[in-house]
Prior knowledge:
It is a single chain. This protein is an alpha+beta fold. It is built from eleven helices and eleven strands. It has helices spanning 3-6, 9-54, 56-64, 68-79, 133-181, 204-293, 298-328, 341-358, 379-395, 445-448, 455-465, and strands at residues 84-91, 96-100, 106-114, 122-131, 337-340, 362-367, 374-377, 401-408, 416-422, 471-474, 480-486. Strand 1 and strand 2 form a beta hairpin. It is elongated. The two termini are 105 Å apart.
Amino acid sequence: MTRRAERRLGPRLLAAIVLASSGLALLATAIQLALDYRRDIEEIDARFVLIDHTLADTLGRSLWSMDKAQIELQLDSLHRLHDVEFVRVQGQLGEQFAVGQESGDMKRRDVQLRAPGGEREVIGTLTVGVGLSGVYHRLFDRALVIFVTQAAKAALIALFILFIVRRWVTRHLERLAAHARGLSADNMTHPLALARHSGRAADEIDDVAQALNDLSRRLAAELDRRGVTEAELRQHRDHLEDLVVHRTAELQQAVKRAEAANAAKSEFLSRMSHELRTPLNAVLGYAQLLRMSGGLSDKQASGLDIIHASGEHLLGLIVDILDLARIEAGRAEMNPGEIDLRAFVRSVADIVRIKAEEKQLALLIEIDEGLPGRVWVDEQRLRQVLLNLLSNAVKFTDRGEVRLRVAAAATPGLALRFEVRDTGIGIAEADRERMFEPFEQGGELHRRSAGTGLGLAISRQLVRQMGSEIRLEAHTGGGSLFWFEAAEPLVSPPSASPRAPH
């Protein structure tokens, strides 16, 4: 028998009923046997009382007269009584008459024999032993009959209950299980019909069948809805793939057009800067020749100075635009070389020192001890970044100082840290990121007119090519701090000269 068959409801129900009925039958049998045993013992006690009332006087007279024949006859009659196995008369003088054999499995009773007459003194003892083996045999027979009867009745009741359960419950459950196992996406709408008599009232089995039919219908509707949704998703996916291919082609074309436009812009800026610088250099050259020739009036000399200053400003603007175009086009290459770090820093400071002294500002230089004497760096690009930062610091500082500091980098993997700190007007928090965009300037209008707005944008791009980023710490009215770190390989050991501001 398989494990599934062992778990069937019918056999388990039959076993449960048989076990329960057998237990009840055993309990009822035990109670009945206890009652019968008590009744048999009470009958034996009643027999002892009857013997005491009926035979004690007769045996007492026979023993008093020593009528042996009469005593033996009376004992024999007692021995013939039901379940009496042993009878004995024993006198006070040692007389003894016995019938039967005494055993341990019996119930005994001693009856006093008295002499006839008025005094009725005790002259002997009558001992009667009733065997219990007969009682036990009768109890066993009764127990067997009761148990068999109860077991047969329990079996009949169990079979009847099993038949009813099979007819009313289990066969319908099997039908429900078979219908549930046979459900699939193709036959969800096929209803379940139980084998029932027409016109009968619905019960719990009918409710389960109806619930299963409702569930099948809902599942069928859900499967239909999901099928429609999946079809729409497949259609949308196919359309999306086509759309992605189309958009990818458009994006590639746009990238190509952007690259072509960027190349055209760079080419245009390069050509335009060259075309502009050629006549501009001629203008600046003739302005310088005129200034050197002399013989000019004050008005003519002033106008010539204006022409020269405007030309210089226009030349700086052209150079900045060309640098920004080269950086954005990815054509700005780094050309590192070996330089003297301290001489380089002083030369950069000397370029802006004149503008600082014109505004009566203190220009301080700090080079930390322990830094190398010579480093490997792109001198032109680093000079351009530091000049932009120092020029902005001088431009936006009216009093106080501008400080250029070179120290060891705090970030692992980097070597040098450059800081430009001023005591100028500061930068509002909302304008900090905007300051690094091309053609963006901060401060008052008269300060903006003095520049192109490209210095910080070019400096950020150059510092990024060095593998770092320009950081800004500033507050409105509280000065500004621009700093960046660079990975410059060391060339010579650190200088032993002490640090001192210049």
